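assembly run, all chains below
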Amino acid sequence: MTTYIIRRLLLVPLLLFGVTILIFGMLQFLTPAERASLYIRDIPKNERQLEIIIKHYNLNDPVYVQYWNWMVGKADPITGEIHGGILRGDFGYSRTGSEPVMDMIKHRFPATLELALLSVLPIIAVGIWLGVAAAVNHNKFIDQLIRVLSIIAASFPVFVFGLLLIMIFYAKLNWFPTGRYSQWVLEEIVSKQFATPTGFMTIDAIKAGRWDILLDTIRHLVLPVLVLSYISWATFVRVTRSSMLEALGQDYILTAREKGLSENQVVRKHALPNAMIPVTTMAGFTVVGLLGGVVITETIFNYPGIGSAAASAATQLDVVTVMGFALFNGFILIAANLIVDVLYGVIDPRVQLS
Amino acid sequence: MDKLLSVNDLRTHFYTREGVVHAVNGISFDLEAGETLGIVGESGCGKSVSMLSLLRLIPQPPGKILSGSANFNDIDLLSTSEDELRKIRGAKISMVFQDPMTYFNPVLKVGKQVMEPYLLHNDVSEKEAEERMFEMFAEVGISNPKGCAEDYPHQYSGGMRQRAMIAMALMCSPEILIADEPTTALDVTIQAQIIDMVRKLRDDFDMSIIWITHDLGIIANLAQRVIVMYAGYIIEEAYVKDLYKKPLHPYTIGLLNSLPRLDMKEKEKLNTIEGIPPVMYKETNLCPFAPRCQFAIDKCLNENPPLERFDNKRSVACWVDVETGKERK
Ligand SMILES: Nc1ncnc2c1ncn2[C@@H]1O[C@H](COP(=O)(O)OP(=O)(O)OP(=O)(O)O)[C@@H](O)[C@H]1O
Ligand SMILES: [Mg+2]
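ok done. output:
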């Protein structure tokens, strides 16, 4: 087990290298002037000064020199201050966000993570539960119902569903507002009456015992969570159902029944652990899919996370910001993959040998 | 001797898209206490299905047990409640299957799986179950029981897996052990070891065994009585000695002739039974073996022979007296 994990960990630097190469390669499509914002905030309009900056930061030099600078940073020849450097956590300056990309991520990522976690956990719980229910009642009414519902969900576009929800619950009924918090909460945050140390509104509200703020937060989260998770629900149910059916058809299930176990025990102790192997992989993909899904969802609901920022950066051709987010996204994916791989090794003992 | 298990008119069909598979067509047999009963027959003749039906372990649907009774300790296995039956499965009647690889759960430790029936059927602690398991591992010749208990099935060799599966079946000291071709997947030397071991265990545990196989050679080594099945019917039943000395059914004769013999000359071809086993999609009113039978007479094509008592100690389902080639009187 440990050697398996170590082997996985050794792969991480390689993956990181690959991701940075990929992103860096894309940055090469920019002009040197545009790339200057990887190192400084105010790009001068003046041609002469621009040229000096391009020279200072080697933006016309061979690609490997640039890659090196991009990775570790580059000292300003006059002040000696180091600018840029992915490894230093400097992803460049965001034109659309008017702050360094990294600061933008710091400000906005907790909101996205909160949304994603609140979406993914119910997906896993409810998805597995429904999938198992469908498989155990194979071809009976419950199974058919769950199948039909998941097909409908899977074939219903996110933006349509999102807009529908907004039309009904926001415009018509005014139950669930858009954004992340109401004006009065925002004012409390800005005036430091309400502190947000973790960045997760739900957790901060609970810690401070501010139930009014918690309620407000939840009201803002309901619609985006629904939109973000419903498609994954459908896939999760399908994968769980089919892998559960497959497990239930295996010979060892017959052995389990032959031992005198009840049907419930057979499902829980023997079929489920096997069915969870493909479902775990699926969970990894789901997290990845969610991170893509937040772009649309956050935009629809005007939710101040990474996704909506990436969308507006993209529409304004702020490539440095988009690439910064892409790089960050890549790191998250590598981490998610690592977690899934380790879980995989825990669930399936056969993995360790191969 | 006492009848431990008495099966009557067991009939199991599968309702598939291609049609109704008449897998088991009204078989009746007894198992006596302490006896080892062999069941032989070609692939697909219904051996496994009939045994699985006894414990109601066939998948339903598509399977359906249409009729029959199976009396075991005054309980009819086929009509008793599911709860009652569960108390018998794995405790009083255990099964060992053909392929120990696929019949073990790949993601659970072997030890955990072996202890499971004991923990389920007895009010004991994990510790006691573990002790029992180590005892059983010793019985079936698994050295290093502690290490093996912690291993997963894929870390075992085929022979070891089958030993572990037998240990699992014996955990609750069953009265009947049903072994469904447990040695088919193993090579010949391991096969012989396992059979020797089972013979020893049978005496130690004082249990009755139903042993399913293709291999009449194994039966001769192990069983006292043998049932020959064909197309879902029992076509002959006899003590092993009698069967080998004088098979009564043309199919049994064919089976025995197709065994390799030591006195066989080199290059001499093994006899085979011509033709293929029937597809069991329809009820027949002829003897199911008639199309392949060299002794067949007109009657065989018009009427399916019932299993009839013969010499008061054996039974056969055939119209023809194979010695004379004429209809039996
Ligand atoms: N789940 C099922 N669905 C449909 N038909 C089945 C099913 N299980 C068994 N059968 C059919 O029932 C018949 C008897 O099968 P069974 O497994 O009892 O044969 P067998 O004598 O054990 O053969 P083998 O020696 O190959 O194990 C076969 O024709 C088989 O195709
Ligand atoms: Mg079989």
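Chain B has one domain: 3-92+174-327.

Chain B has eleven helices and 14 strands.

not gonna interpret more than that til we talk
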